[in-house]
Amino acid sequence: MMTSKDNLIAEKSMAFAVRIVNLYKHLVETKREYVLSKQVLRAGTSIGANVREANSAQSKPDFIAKMSIALKECDETGYWLELLVKTEFLSEDEYNAIEADCREIFAVLTAILKSARSSPS
Q1: d(CA 35, CA 26)
Q2: Residue 119 CB partners (closer than 8 Å, separation 6+)
Q3: pLDDT, tens only, 8-40
Q4: Residues 62, 99, 81, 51: what is their CA dihedral angle, to the nearest 10 degrees?
Q5: What does the alpha-carbon distance between residue 74 and residue 70 come to, in Å, rounded to a whole number?
Q6: 4-116 is classed CATH 3.40.1010.20
Q7: What is the pTM for the complete model shown?
Q8: H, E, C per residue of the chain
Q9: Contact 27, 37 (CB under 8 A)
Q10: d(CA 98, CA 55)
């Protein structure tokens, strides 16, 4: 059930999770921010975890369900990133760099889900 797009999203979501972990460490160590940083850590790392689960799905509906959760977590991550920049825990440059990756992952997940939902079982 794994396609080249799925491999791409697995790689991108893992790289994004690493960036999110590093962002979390930065926020905690230098900004002393503990609440919002924990939220972005949870949501941002959950994307890749759900992609990994989807790639081991037992059925097409299971695959779609896991990828849908990954998409929702990606959207939530975008919310926390936006809140971090609006509360000045992230600079505009920091935000723009990581948010672009988040948007790209969202677009790839959306394309995967569209394809999975439209293809015959």
Answers
A1: 13
A2: none
A3: 999 999 999 999 999 999 999 999 999 999 999
A4: 20
A5: 6
A6: no
A7: 0.93
A8: CCCHHHHHHHHHHHHHHHHHHHHHHHHHHHCCCCHHHHHHHHHHHHHHHHHHHHCCCCCHHHHHHHHHHHHHHHHHHHHHHHHHHHCCCCCHHHHHHHHHHHHHHHHHHHHHHHHHHHCCC
A9: yes
A10: 24
Rounded Cα–Cα distance for residues 12 and 50 (Å): 13
Model confidence over 49-88: pLDDT tens digits? 999 999 999 999 999 999 999 999 999 999 999 999 999 9
- State how far the Cα of 102 lies from the Cα of 81, in Å rounded to an integer: 9
Q: Which residue shows structure tokens 């988040």?
A: 102
Q: Are 77 and 43 in contact (CB under 8 A)?
A: yes
Residue partners of 106: CB distance under 8 A and separation at least 6: 71, 74, 75, 78
pLDDT at 89 over 60: yes
What's the CA gap between 79 and 42, in Å, rounded? Answer: 13
